[in-house]
Amino acid sequence: MEVLLRNLKIFLIGAFGYGLMETFFRGGTHWTMLVTGGVCFVILYYINSKNENAPLWKKCLVGALIITTIEFAVGCIVNLWLGWNVWDYSRYPFNIFGQICLAFTFLWFLLCIPLAYFTRFIHIRQNRI
Questions:
Q1: Which of 10, 6, 115 lies closest to 62, judged by CA?
Q2: 50 neighbors 116 (Cβ within 8 angstroms)
Q3: Mind telling me which residue stretches traverse the membrane in this protein (predicted)?
């Protein structure tokens, strides 16, 4: 039960954190992005916790690839299959089916810099008890 509650807290931090960020930059968000942000943050939390001594650039590269992979899977479901049109990167160069693109993968890499420190902070606080 303790692990479930910890994962729920981490999920909610990621869900609402990403939702706020997207609302700030895009003027709104979609509920699927809250779920996606939460899932990504839980995965990043555990990867960064297990690899705390890895160089920052490696954490960011792995994080960007994870986020991009999840973004592609979610995009194929919500945009291509369900037709909800939550986002469309088709106007960006180096996109795949308009669901992911190199520019946003680079953006996720940059976002993973503060997230590496933030997940470390949360991990330390969780284990202090």
A1: 115
A2: no
A3: 7-25, 31-48, 60-84, 96-118
Q: Which pTM was predicted?
A: 0.94
Residue in this structure with the two tokens 């807290």, named with its chain if needed:
9
For the chain, give the secondary structure using H, E and C.
Answer: CHHHHHHHHHHHHHHHHHHHHHHHHHCCCCHHHHHHHHHHHHHHHHHHHHCCCCCHHHHHHHHHHHHHHHHHHHHHHHHHHCCCCCCCCCCCCCEECCCEEHHHHHHHHHHHHHHHHHHHHHHHHHHCC
Tally of domains within the chain:
1
| Interval 57-109: pLDDT, tens | 999 999 999 999 999 999 999 999 999 999 999 999 999 999 999 999 999 99
Strands 100-101 and 95-96: antiparallel
In whole angstroms, give the CA distance from residue 58 to residue 51. 10
Print the domain residue range for 61: 2-127
